[in-house]
Amino acid sequence: xxxxxxxxxxxxxxxxxxxxxxxxxxxxxxxxxxxxxxxxxxxxxxxxxxxxxxxxxxxxxxxxxxxxxxxxxxxxxxxxxxxxxxxxxxxxxxxxxxxxxxxxxxxxxxxxxxxxxxxxxxxxxxxxxxxxxxxxxxxxxxxxxxxxxxxxxxxxxxxxxxxxxxxxxxxxxxxxxxxxxxxxxxxxxxxxxxxxxxxxxxxxxxxxxxxxxxxxxxxxxxxxxxxxxxxxxxxxxxxxxxxxxx
Amino acid sequence: xxxxxxxxxxxxxxxxxxxxxxxxxxxxxxxxxxxxxxxxxxxxxxxxxxxxxxxxxxxxxxxxxxxxxxxxxxxxxxxxxxxxxxxxxxxxxxxxxxxxxxxxxxxxxxxxxxxxxxxxxxxxxxxxxxxxxxxxxxxxxxxxxxxxxxxxxxxxxxxxxxxxxxxxxxxxxxxxxxxxxxxxxxxxxxxxxxxxxxxxxxxxxxxxxxxxxxxxxxxxxxxxxxxxxxxxxxxxxxxxxxxxxx
DNA sequence: CGAGCTCTTGATGTGGCTCAAGAATCGTGG
DNA sequence: CCACGATTCTTGAGCCACATCAAGAGCTCG
Lengths: 246, 246
Description:
Chain A contains eight helices and eleven strands. Chain A has 246 residues and is an alpha+beta fold. Chains A and B meet through β5, α3, α4 and α6 of A and β5, α3, α4 and α6 of B. The first copy, chain A, binds a DNA duplex (30 and 30 nucleotides) through α7.
């Protein structure tokens, strides 16, 4: 069945950006160790000391599914995707990460998902052992991480409902509303999608063509408008929510 | 599209078993407060004091999606399902719970899923406030719950991969292997499914008819055998794993 | 033994996939 | 600043996996 767009995408990316190791930014474009803005108040104190700021370029593969999960990452800036491949190349994107999201604390042994930068990114990298040790001792940090994991768990369940029972149009509507919601944008009407259609398709269990067609329909029905394929304006949010269902 | 089997199922159950409040078992069929076997060593000590053993009958709705999440539950015995409905009645079953699984600690306000007993069940019910308080103070308990939540999160992600990119046959194969795995059965060849076809369908994003047809195919291909529609024998596990993919 | 389920099987329909070809957009170098 | 190659996006035609609709066959339990 799925002649994998995933593979094309995959190789396209690595052709464009040969995988290089993570580098500490020479001149960090974001707040560094000393002046790091605590994104999650209360946890930075303990974890701050073991966190190492790193930069990743657009297209870079930061973690590979199957590799030992030696680090936990926090997103400071940029957008990333968490993805996984079936042996034959079919791909699923579990989620997109933005500021404040964590990656990697859900595995004991190896990463089950790959982490790839959709845009240039700023991250904090924590050594896994020390990270765990802090969670062990510091109830505050532990509690914070627990809440974060709960949020991720809820998000995963939302997506499950979407993938198991919603139509293509409903999935796209749900996706757009989620994106609007989490970027907490200005008036909630303007949305810049950091990901291409392939990624949206692989996130929602659709094909790139279906995503494209549905977006066109939504535009024709005046629920949204596009100026540039990634620049979405929400014209009729109520109708979009109606369409998205629950 | 989906003329909801969900609704039929729903009303069938409540017709059979009118929703009654949870009762403490008159004569508990399972180890009670005093002699409760710690399912998860290390956490029972603290949480034990606030846990109240309750029994639920087959078909009983224990928590309703949308209601205030006042309690956390631990499964001692039996099988339950976690489900949610779209406004038009399409249903998704996020997971099935068995011994040692928890429900309800992922929500701040209301339950987002309903909890229903597939068989007669024994549960421990924890008041949410006190449960949270213990997690706050006791790093041991917190850490244990964190790990459990991680497992649930990983399970959810597995299902996401399944729902987004696998075919009907692959989904069923994956499901059977998961069920085999978690029941840790005798020789890993015999499987008693506690749930009817409708529930499997609503878990895997399929219809009851498709589930039935695929099961028939698997039997014809000698991957499994049935004696009774819920009594599954795994004849060729390798082929089943091959089929399930990753 | 029979009413009410649940499960199976068949016939037909359709939403979204596949295959194919342009159109827009982006990045790069002249 | 523009040309052009590469990539991404859109659109169309046809097809297929699974849904829907419809019956009948087992179970189960009173």
